[in-house]
Amino acid sequence: MRNIIYFFVLSLLSTAVHAESTIFKDWTPEQKVQFTAMTLASAIDFSQTTWMTKQKVGSQYAYNELNPLLGKRPTDVQVGISQIVFIGFNYYLISKEKDMSPFARKVSENARWLMTGYKFSVVIYNQENGITFSKVF
């Protein structure tokens, strides 16, 4: 399952930066950069979360998931689905922006950048608590 999710995330990531893609051809460069950053942060968060939920010190788990929607010990599938939903919502916002009023478009853009910042803050928080990139990748 982990390889399937990696494939999905990497496929989205590579497609997002490919300017000739039929799915993303109407997107602005800013939308492509933001979507790519969000997808990258989600991939890192997925790897960190699935790694940390399996770590034990003796008979005790070393880490607990803090997302109340996932619970303390989510499965890889639950974490993967939550990341796909997050990425999918971001994609949905971008795809609807061209039909929005200027004000609604600005709200959507700001919401997407806030989501990306939140996702990177989770990755940085995990990094600071010992779930380093070298352990995960």
- Rg value: 16 Å
Secondary-structure content class: mainly alpha
- Broad shape: elongated
End-to-end Cα distance, whole Å, is 16 Å
Q: What number is the mean pLDDT?
A: 84
Spatial sequence of strands, sheet with the most strands: 1-2
Given the structure, what is the number of helices? Answer: 5
Record field, number of beta strands: 2
Helical content, roughly? 55-70%
Low-confidence stretches: none
N-to-C order of helices and strands: HHEEHHH
User: Per DSSP, what share of the residues sits in E-state strands of 2 or more residues?
Assistant: under 5%
Strand count, sense and barrel status of the largest sheet are: 2 strands, antiparallel
Give a description of the structure:
- With 137 residues, this protein is mainly α.
- It is 68% helix and 3% strand.
- It is built from 5 helices and 2 strands, in the order H-H-E-E-H-H-H.
- A hairpin with a 2-residue loop joins strand 1 and strand 2.
- The radius of gyration is 16 Å and the shape is elongated.
- The two termini are 16 Å apart.
Record keyword descriptors for this entry:
mainly alpha
Secondary-structure blueprint of this entry?
Elements: H1 2-17, H2 29-52, E1 56-57, E2 60-61, H3 76-97, H4 102-128, H5 133-136
Antiparallel strand pairs: 1-2
Compact overview of the structure:
The protein is an all-alpha fold. Helix content is 68%, strand content 3%.
